[in-house]
Amino acid sequence: MRTTTFAAALLTAALTACSSGPRVPDWQLNAAGATERATAAYMEGKSAVAEREFGLARSQVGSTAQPALAIRIELLRCAVQVAALVFEECPGFTPLQPDASAADQAYARYLAGRATPADAALLPEPQRAVAGASSDMAAASAAAAISDPLSRMVAAGALMRANRATPELVTTAINTASAQGWRRAVLAWLNVQLQRAEQAGDSAEAERLRRRIKLASTP
Fold first, then answer.
1. Cβ(138)–Cβ(14) under 8 Å?
2. End-to-end alpha carbon distance in the chain
3. Where are the beta strands (DSSP E) in the chain?
4. Which residue in 5, 30, 127, 181 has the most C-beta neighbors within 10 A?
5. C-alpha distances in angstroms, 13 versus 9, 54, 77, 82, 148?
6. What pTM does this model have?
7. Could you read off the pLDDT of 163-200 as tens digits, one per residue?
């Protein structure tokens, strides 16, 4: 399972099928669109829209009675929260856990900042080098090398949750969120950088960051 992911996989399958294969079931198209919209809305700070779209996606995959599909949606929901530094439990995943694969369980631990060395090989490929890095600097470099913006943000959030976030990682996360226009995420990471500047007594840097935060906070 890729981090960005379930929605992208469904959309790819849908486009392929529409062009040359059997008709794609409505649930698949609807779930793909809903997860894409939910992810974008959450990262942009549109919580009500995100909640509605994730609910729609769960409803659509529920019609298949396949726990694996519901698990992927709930792990995606957890992943976007981690990317935006919202470190909560994943209540939607908990009741599905008995049906989760070893890879799903490893990914859930990774998102919670509790990955074990053995988990690294089970993670989505973009996250393996991050989880298996021998130092925080190496982990930050591995995260920065991830090509997909959301996967990169998820890696940064997982490292932050595990207390492994270097200054370089924070900068990578801010730049990534800024480039995508992800207001919720950029504000969360700017506040991390602001807190560190204040702790270091760097008043000029703190003022610069407050100006950026004010700009991003203005609708």
1. no
2. 35
3. none
4. 127
5. 6, 20, 21, 27, 19
6. 0.90
7. 999 999 999 999 999 999 999 999 999 999 999 999 99
